[in-house]
Amino acid sequence: MTTHHGDDQTQTEERRESADRRRSRRQEQRQLRSIVAQLADGIVIVGADGLIRFANPAAEHLFGRSARDLLGTQFGYPVANGEPAPIDVVRPGGATVAAELRVVNITWDGEPARLVSIRDITERRRAEERSQQLERERAARAEAEAANQAKSDLVATMSHELRTPLNAVLGYAELLDLGIGGTLGQQQRHQVDRIRASGQHLLGLVDQLLDLAKADAGRLSVEIGSYSARATADAAAALLQPTAEARGIKFVDKFSDERVYYVGDDDRVRQILVNLLTNAVKFTEAGGTVSLEYGQAARPDGEARVRDRGPWTYFRVTDSGVGIPADQLTRIFQPFVQVESGHTRSKDGSGLGLTISRRLARLMRGDITVRSTAGEGSAFTLWLPSSDEPESGHADRQAGEQGDLARNRGLADVGEALLRALEPLLEAFVSRLRAECPIPGAATLKFSQLADHVPSYVADLAGMLIALDESAGQPSSVMVDATDIHRLVAGRHGAQRARLGWDEAAIHCEYGILRDEIERVVRQRTRAIEGDAIDEAWAIVARFLEEAERTSIRALTRAANAAGSG
């Protein structure tokens, strides 16, 4: 009996100890649940069978589903111990959250299990993507600027090399024409004239390339003085009137007896007028009219980029030729651009005359404006500061080196403000893009996919404003290829949008948001800057954005058509 009683007592104690252990485990588990429920990271307990046994509130928020929906479902991600692993959590509706997963072995309800910690790293990943993208864009810009400088150096070197043999060709043509090598027949003389005319034309193109190379390097100079508008107009008309009349074009000089003077470089102004008259004659058919006039005005045309208050002296070249389509008016002043392009264009030329003419005009504190209607003709106007009378002296002015040249003061401040606001601007742009535009799968697209080329494009716009200010209104080496770079970026952007399945309406919506956000930055973050500079900066940016939108839409259409035909 004593032995039996001892066995009962031992069993009772074992049962008591077992119950104590169970109570202790339950207490520990309640404490663990309480702690886990307060953690900011998502925590799920996954059993050996891969089913979710527990999920804290942070995990519910991360997955976008309640704990009731999660419990008993397959976890669906690798749960091996080891280094943190990146995963993408897809919420109901398709939204994607970037996360980092860690796994620890534990015992849960007396069974082996794994505690899985899931941390939302979406913002960190976006920041890394933005940083990487901005770094790639900076490297691309540096490479483009280096290539542009190499191009300018090559143009300057080759232009000088070409002048030597060209001068020899022209010199020998003159000697032949003078009869040094023997008397020439009529046919031979005609052929020599053709050699001389072609050589002169080629020499003119070389001179234009030299001027462009100097402008790129900021070494294009002018001699500033006060001159008679009548004398300069007479000299330019004398050069072009015979050419116009030989082509059956009526040349009209609307010169008055009024004494009108301007401040500038007489040789450079004559060069500009010859360029404008040459184009007018080139694009006017026989029977048409080309006219040249000058005068004074209190204010220039509204689109003229000038800083002086006036009055202004103007030279206006008007023709009744083919005219220029409205969408081409901003392009004709870009290097190597003609309205009629391609190998079959009917008019020759380098496409540099208007580019150099505008740069020279702005270097003299003036500008060139254009009014045109396709099929009805064009009117180009050169605006220069007026003077009361000619001066005996003049001062040498060189681009980027004279402090009293008209500078677009304040543009650099606007550009720097835009650069400083780039990150919040992109955040607002992408956020509005997701919410407002008809974009396929907007919720599932990553930040980098929605931002695409926009960071590079906005940074280049800001850099362009800074370059305009620093170069006293003259295009610097940074500015020379700005239009081409922007067009390339906009084209690549349109092609990327086509790959994502966007349509023209989505592109319109996107550029509308980008325009709003940039203008908001320009207006709100530059209140201490002179109002004229802000308006001018926004006008410049708006023109580039309009062109970029058209380029992106064309690229999207081409890409969509190519995909359809393939």
- Top-tier CATH class of the largest domain: Alpha Beta
Cα-to-Cα separation, first versus last residue: 97 Å
Tell me the number of helical segments per DSSP (H or I, 4 or more residues long). 16
CA radius of gyration is 37 Å
What does this structure look like?
- With 566 residues, the protein is of the alpha+beta class.
- The protein folds into 4 domains: 82 residues, PAS domain (Beta-Lactamase, 2-Layer Sandwich), CATH 3.30.450.20; 67 residues, Orthogonal Bundle (Helix Hairpins), CATH 1.10.287; 176 residues, Histidine kinase-like ATPase, C-terminal domain (Heat Shock Protein 90), CATH 3.30.565; 155 residues, Globin-like, CATH 1.10.490.
- The strands form 2 sheets. Strands 6, 7, 8, 9, 10, 11, 12 and 13 form an 8-stranded mixed beta sheet that branches. Strands 2-1-5-4-3 form a 5-stranded antiparallel beta sheet.
- A hairpin with a 4-residue loop joins strand 1 and strand 2.
- The radius of gyration is 37 Å and the shape is elongated.
- The N and C termini lie far apart (97 Å).
- 31% of the residues are buried.
- About 6% of the residues have low confidence.
